[in-house]
């Protein structure tokens, strides 16, 4: 199963979504196509399994940042830490970009939404507990920040597919920091 997933991921990264068929993944993995169907009934199952890998990796990275020895001490620092983490991950994993933003199936959409929901809640608790956001800040605020962030990443990688557009990414950070700052204990800071 891993050989099929690894092959599909390589094809996605090198040649894009349309090229990453089950047949192409089987050929690259050196596995008969009939064997592929033993593990995956269709391409969407492969896509979902690849996305699960990416989501698991991203969750681990977020946990390292927020629970590490030097967690972000400012609201802007928290925004930068999460944006940098996601940006670096997307740049290093172009197959993730292919799946994350196109959301070609309900399964992919649900995986991204579940990640956003869980990570928004984690960051909301982190920011409130560290005094970066007021205690009465609604969870909706962080959920909206993640929706905005996803949309702006999507735009950045459509404008400049491999690296994300620097101008869009700069505005991405600025917009998120300014929005979240309105919920800081002292919004003028």
UniProtKB/TrEMBL annotation:
<keyword id="KW-0804">Transcription</keyword>
<feature type="DNA-binding region" description="H-T-H motif">
    <location>
        <begin position="21"/>
        <end position="40"/>
    </location>
</feature>
<protein>
    <submittedName>
        <fullName>TetR/AcrR family transcriptional regulator</fullName>
    </submittedName>
</protein>
<dbReference type="InterPro" id="IPR041669">
    <property type="entry name" value="TetR_C_15"/>
</dbReference>
<dbReference type="InterPro" id="IPR009057">
    <property type="entry name" value="Homeodomain-like_sf"/>
</dbReference>
<dbReference type="Pfam" id="PF00440">
    <property type="entry name" value="TetR_N"/>
</dbReference>
<keyword id="KW-0238">DNA-binding</keyword>
<dbReference type="Pfam" id="PF17918">
    <property type="entry name" value="TetR_C_15"/>
</dbReference>
<feature type="domain" description="HTH tetR-type">
    <location>
        <begin position="1"/>
        <end position="58"/>
    </location>
</feature>
<keyword id="KW-0805">Transcription regulation</keyword>
<dbReference type="InterPro" id="IPR050109">
    <property type="entry name" value="HTH-type_TetR-like_transc_reg"/>
</dbReference>
<dbReference type="InterPro" id="IPR001647">
    <property type="entry name" value="HTH_TetR"/>
</dbReference>
């Amino acid at each position: 199963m891993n050989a099929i997933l690894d092959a599909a991921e390589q094809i996605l990264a090198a040649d894009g979504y349309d090229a990453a068929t089950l047949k192409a993944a089987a050929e690259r993995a050196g596995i008969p196509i009939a064997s592929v169907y033993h593990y995956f009934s269709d391409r969407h199952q492969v896509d979902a399994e690849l996305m699960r890998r990416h989501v698991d990796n991203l969750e681990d990275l977020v946990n390292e940042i927020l629970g590490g020895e030097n967690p972000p001490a400012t609201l802007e620092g928290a925004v930068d830490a999460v944006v940098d983490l996601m940006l670096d991950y997307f740049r290093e994993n172009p197959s993730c970009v292919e799946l994350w933003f196109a959301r070609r199936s309900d399964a992919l959409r649900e995986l991204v939404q579940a990640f956003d929901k869980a990570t928004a809640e984690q960051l909301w608790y982190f920011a409130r507990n560290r005094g970066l956001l007021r205690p009465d800040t609604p969870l909706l605020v962080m959920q909206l920040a993640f929706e905005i962030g996803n949309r702006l990443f999507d735009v950045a990688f459509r404008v400049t597919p491999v690296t994300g557009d620097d101008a869009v990414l700069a505005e991405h950070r600025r917009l998120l920091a300014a929005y979240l700052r309105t919920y800081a204990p002292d919004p003028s800071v």
